[in-house]
Amino acid sequence: MSRVFVPGDALAVALGADAVAYALRNAGAGIVRTGSRGLAWLEPLIEVETAGGRVGYGPVGVGDVSALLNAGVLSGGAHALRVGRVEDHPWMRGQKRITFARCGVVDPLSVEDYVAHGGLQGLKRALEIGFAATIEEITQSGLRGRGGAGFPAGVKWKGAADAQASRKYVVCNADEGDSGTFADRMLMEGDPMSLIEGVAIAAFAIGASKAFVYSRSEYPHANATFQKALAAVRATGGLGPHAFGPNHAFDIELRIGAGAYVCGEETALLESLEGKRGQVRAKPPLPVHAGLFGKPTVINNVLTLATAPWIMANGAKTYADIGHGRSRGTMAIQLAGNVKYPGLYEAPFGLTLGQIVHDIGGGTASGRPVRAVQCGGPLGAYFPPTLFDTPYDYEAFAARDGLIGHGGVVVFDDTVDMAAQARFALEFCAIESCGKCTPCRIGSVRGQEVIDRILAGENREANLVLIEDLCQTLKLGSLCALGGFTPYPVMSALKYYPDDFQSATAYDAAVAKR
Amino acid sequence: MTKRWDPAQAEAIVRAHAQLEGPLLPILHALSAEFGCVPEEATALVAEELNLSRAEVHGVISFYHDFRREPRGKIVVKLCRAEACQAMGGREAAEAVLAHFKLGWGDTNGDRSVTIEPVYCLGLCAAAPAALVNGAPSARVEPARLIAAIEAMR
Q1: Count of domains observed in chain B
Q2: Which residues pair with A119 in a beta bridge?
């Protein structure tokens, strides 16, 4: 009997994958629960092992199962939901999967499956060539922090490796709070062992024996899968007292946040791990010198760490040869919101925003014109279609007062009220502010009031100047990116969509005309 | 149903986690899981066990959205309010669900059957709007369907 792969990814489960797996199992099929391939509009996307490769069917509802079985799904039979070999799907063929090569393919809890698909080669090579050469390799690859800041990973690792201390830590930032992003979640559910391997490589490189993965309480499925993956690796001795060789111990502990967005900021995250309020620390000292419990700490995003094994296995040059400008390698672009083909699309840097939204995303799900695209999460700028020629690259986005952040691309159609979006950005900042610095704590509240006054027509001109001034204060005077970047969505909305700020009713009138 | 406050059991929970590095958040999560919240009585107990001031423990409990002083209802509905869900009608869906149960954000209804909390991203943005109902993910939320599902669980 051929095996059937059914995603156990939270998004697929939300769309009914558990019931599909149950029905197929009852029909006698051998089921393997995998992560998601990232073609979200086809979820639940099941795959059947055939002589000609893995044939996909999707989206499969539990009501489709008997018809699929009658059509001979278990031998790859024809059916309206059949999408053919998943690798041959146009959406997959355009991608360059490095970080997500195994996601949706392997059983996330099987060490054997992981190794069969190239896993552990990176760590093996790191242990062979030693810590200094490992850091050099990561540096030469050009890998930059995928959490959003884009800081060179190798430089960070070297800083911690060079620091003298009795104890060092690696901390993985899995507090993926940005709206429109889900790559960390997908990876932890679909290929958690690549993250474990990446964390291990970083720990070996800097001389740490302990690492923490700080995830979020909003991700119960990812946390459960990751915890099981840690146990599976620990059972093989890959984590524990002899992880890196005889008496060379290393282990990873999963910690869960408690619903505070600001804990995705690295110093707030460290405070939270220490058991404190998630308040931002002033820098310096940098975490590589004095991080967790005051010890040298490398803190990297999930995708940064999970890409390290591929770089170590395939060589820095292979990775550095891909990309655009100073943004090397691939980026896991996460297409979400009002878009026809949402999902995870890993590609070399350099696609234009227009290609991402129209060619890959297929435009809006509603069929209406695209009006705005928010890139880089809730602190990212709104881009109008006139900026769709912007290449997807850290510097190109920064040059247009935007950011790629953690790779979120959220599409809005022409019914969006940009004044409401600007106001929401400030509201979100107020809700999630850690309260340590005044521009963020107070400015976010005052900003909402100013926008309300603008919409009410009170001293419009003066208040438009005031909001701009307030945004400058937030941008330049905040301690961290929460206050510092909240002005991006606000200012971009004001700049590109001034009509929406004409009055409280301007938006309704405009929508009626569209 | 969540259990009544039990100091002996709470102390056992605290001690079970006290050896961790930075044990406070794991302890507060464990107490929440056991008692449905972190009641006022927990502050002094945790402070004593961890050699912290009550102010420090209170400060941590009050900082994080997840830690509440009062138990949530039997059914906890977390509705995403963030941008990707807004782009797919999340605002309107949330308003309809709140209006049906006559609740505001974070509130629990009179018979303590339903609590509705805001959440800012569940990572289900590629099938927005999204919700978590007692930890089970729900995507492409339609208010009528979600309301019916919650009502069936009450």
Answers
A1: 2
A2: none
